[in-house]
Amino acid sequence: MTESSTQSTSQPTETQPPIDIESAVIGVLGGTGEQGRGLATRFADAGLNVIIGSRTAERATDVAREIGDAVRGMSNEDTAMASDIVIVAVPWEGHRELLESLATSLSGKIVVDCVNPLGFDKGGAFGLNVPEGSAAQQAQAALPNSVVVAAFHHISAKLLLDPEIVSLSGDVLVVGDDRPATDAIQTLAGKLTGMRGVYAGRLRNAGQVEAFTANLISMNRRYKGHAGVHITDID
Questions:
Q1: Fewer CB atoms inside 10 Å of the end CB: C or N, the chain?
Q2: What does the pLDDT read at residue 55?
Q3: Are strands 170-176 and 147-150 parallel, antiparallel or unpaired?
Q4: How far apart are CA 55 and CA 75, in angstroms?
Q5: DSSP label at 230?
C-alpha cells in the first residue's frame, strides 16, 4: 500500500495523552489584531489562562490590560515559550517568517493555525495558492517538531469583540493529523459560548477550510451580516 493511500484511510494518529484545557496556558500570537484579540478575550472570559503575543512586549501588555487582569501580554517569542497551546492569528504576509523564527520555542507544542491566505481585488475576496497546500501545512513544514491543527477560521472578529454578544452561534471546523490534539482543540472551541468544535479531516484538508473564508466574506458583504458555519446532522 502506498503512503498516499495509507493517509487517505487512516485516522489521526495518537502521539500524546489527552490535554487538560482547563489547566493549559493558551497563547495567541498576533493577539493585538482583531481576530487574535477577540479569541483571547473570549477564552479569558471562559476562565482560561491566556497570554497574548505581539512583536513587542509593550504593545502586548497594553492590549492585555485593556482586555482585563486575567490576560498577560508578552513578546511573540516569550508567548510561544510560556504557552501550552499556541494560536497563530497573524497576517498571512508574515506567517512563514514568524513561525520559522519561533520553531525552537514552539517545539513539542500544539500550534493552532487560523490564518486565511486571501487576496482581494475589485471582484472581492479569493483564496491564494499556497505552495504547501494551505497556511496550516506551511506551518507544519516550518514547525516539524510541533503538532499543527487548523481551526477558528470562520468566526467574525466583530462578533468576538462585541461585548453585547454573550453567546456566539455556529461550529468551528478542526483539522489535523493528531487525534489528542484535534480533540483538545474541539474542547477549546467549546469554551466559546454557543460554539462547537467539529473534526473536519486531516491537515491536508485545511486548504478548502481556509479558502471558504472568502465565500463567507462575500456572503457578509451581500447580506450585511456576520455569517459563520453550522454543520447539521452530527452529535
A1: C
A2: 94
A3: antiparallel
A4: 6
A5: -
Strand 118-121 versus strand 110-113 pairing type? unpaired
Question: 184 near 15, Cβ under 8 Å?
Answer: no
Q: What are 151's three cell numbers?
A: 481551526
* Cα–Cα dist 46/192, whole Å: 7
CA 51 to chain centre: 14
Position 4 scores a pLDDT of 38
Rg of the chain over all Cα atoms, to the nearest angstrom: 17
Identify the structural domains of the chain with CATH numbers, from first to last. Answer: 17-223 (3.40.50.720)
Using DSSP's 3-state secondary structure scheme, residue 174 falls into strand
CA–CA distance, 123 with 127 (Å, rounded to integer): 12
How far is residue 27's CA from residue 172's CA, in Å, rounded to a whole number?
Answer: 18
Tens-digit pLDDT profile for residues 109-135 = 999 999 999 999 999 999 999 999 999
- Per-residue burial over 53-90, b if 16 or more Cβ lie within 10 Å, else e, is bbbebebbbebbeebeebbbbbbbbbbbbbbbbbbbbb
